[in-house]
Amino acid sequence: MLDVGCGSGPSTAAAATAVHPGGMVTGIDIAAPMIAAARQRIRDRDIEWIVGDAESYPLPEGHYDAIISQMGLMFFTNNAKAFANLARASRAGGRLVGVVWPTRDKISTFRFLFNSVRQTLDRLHIAYQEPPLDFGPFSLGDDRYVEQLLGESGWTDIQIEEVERPMTMAAWETSKDQQSAVDWLQMGPANAYSRTTTGCACRGRQQLDPDHKATRYR
Question: Domain for residue 218, yes or no?
């Protein structure tokens, strides 16, 4: 099994438990600090860790029975190239299961952030161009686009399901280790999004987003 965008390895560790005994799991992430953290946290010898971009990394051809990703696939820069590479690495009959964000207008957290920024810029009379709903990490939020993308990349029997989960964020002053949280954000793929919102700050209290949404496809 291959875990794409594995970060510090929580989903990779869960996958390793699921396939034991006899199964092998590989975790791949473009961020070296994340892989270093995964190696330190998870001592399972049956997990292979790779620092690399799954979009272009020379994964073994026809090797994996299953490819999973929890909020990692949406950070590819070239979706067609990435999913073709994953299809090449999958065995015949293999499965791809991923969880990604929908377009940003469907997530109340991001609606709040963008509305706040928009109101501030309007009040200051600062000209701006609003990014499209599917920019950056929201690029896999359209069902029809994803179906076409996966089909053209070699995947078949595509199923898409919308799921909703609460996203609870603790208040800044109650954090036990604030610097660790900041360091984690700077290391991982979330930093790719945070760089696009420089100057926008939001302090969450209790349950900021009661209808956080994601799209799961397989």
Answer: no
